[in-house]
Predict the structure.
Amino acid sequence: MRIVDLRSDTVTLPPPAMREAILRAPLGDDVYGEDPTVRALEELAAEITGKEAALLVTSGTMGNLVSILAHCGRGDEVILGDRSHTFLYEVGGIAALGGIHPHPVPNEPDGTIPLQRIEAAIRPEDIHFPRTRLICLENTHNRCWGAPLTPGYTAEVVSLARRHGLAVHLDGARIFNAAVSLGVEVRELVGGVDSVTFCLSKGLAAPVGSVICGERGFIEEARRVRKMVGGGMRQAGIIAACGIVALRTMVERLAEDHENAAALARGIADVDGLATEPERVRTNIVYFQLVRGDPGEFHRRARAGGVLFHRTGPRSFRLVTHYGIARPDVDYALSVLADAARHSV
Ligand code: TLP
């Protein structure tokens, strides 16, 4: 059966060039700092983001956890969006493992948190309050339709943070999607932030890995924290080798994923019984709703037709385009969705 897997860009399989790079990669023990391929990836990531140093970690979740643990102590507070991945989908790790208090503030539909809301959430010095240490942003914003945050907005948050002596961490899991969508360099998008995590294993199609970038001293601290949470890896060059291929060859093609997502959204808007807002789709994520009929039945029928995607609410669903999806897959998915919607009433 034909399968069109739109559950996530995490399902991408590594292209042949990555598998070949694994075979060629020089290796060493990275906990001793002796894996040349890991070092090469970290140098490349630091150069691309315009930061002093970088650290390979296993996942986006570990990248955010390690970064936040490196910025904050127990009892400190972090301001983050109420729809952010770190708040919703990272198992409460910052609280469970770091004793760090999350202070969620409502996200706007475009993924931003209004500056005045951030400012209002910053705690004054008071014996009753936790100390605010950090502001977290997410770019692109997963739950906000993959919206890219602009360099201008991020710079405003950074200057607000500076005025209050706070640090800024950016969950840039899909920062390359943001850069391609906005037509700017990644370094412009992460300009003033103290740390950024980006993922190699989403749209860039590497099998494993994320990278934290920041100042040298911060990255040294993050390296200690990574070891503490069991993330010190030995011959990790086999992972890093794929990451280097990802950064060198997989970025520009993200535009194709964005075009396919736009085509999906336009097609869905034309299906009787389904609703979406195509103008909100700026990168590779599409949300849509089943307007009438049984959502469970709709989802089952789509799956039976080979089209896989997540349900994200009582009547809402998410589709993500990626390296494994070509235009004919979009057309096929649209026909299966239309059929499922028709038969779920
Ligand atoms: N997101 C996954 C799921 O966890 C929801 C997905 O399919 O979109 N930050 C952002 C913005 C993310 O979207 C994700 C993964 C992560 C961090 C975590 O990355 P991993 O899965 O590598 O831990």
